[in-house]
PepSY domain-containing protein
Amino acid sequence: MNLRSLNKKTKIGVAAGAAVLLAGGIAGTAFAGGGDDDETDRPIPAADLEQASDAALAETGGGTVTETEVNDEESKYEVEVTMDDGTQIDVQLDENFNVVGTKSEGPGHDDD
């Protein structure tokens, strides 16, 4: 079967179907890109990890670093610290490892 043998209605239907598929793909990509930013999270590079961890642990007074992120929407670095009671504290740091904010979440809370 070639394109010349298709009648006009069939050609229009094929074109419309292709347009719908294309639009759906574009909308799906836009939706996926506009949702949770976990897909683009990058951990803090090894060269900065120790300094960022030390700053976050000093702010929280202890705990365990459980996750890190570069270029978080709120700061240059974000360090998640889990306390002994399970509370998670996100510590936001600027490019000089100064604390610019914190956010605490109760035990067992996980955004993933």
In short: The two ends are 49 Å apart (CA to CA). The CA atoms of residues 53 and 70 lie 13 Å apart.
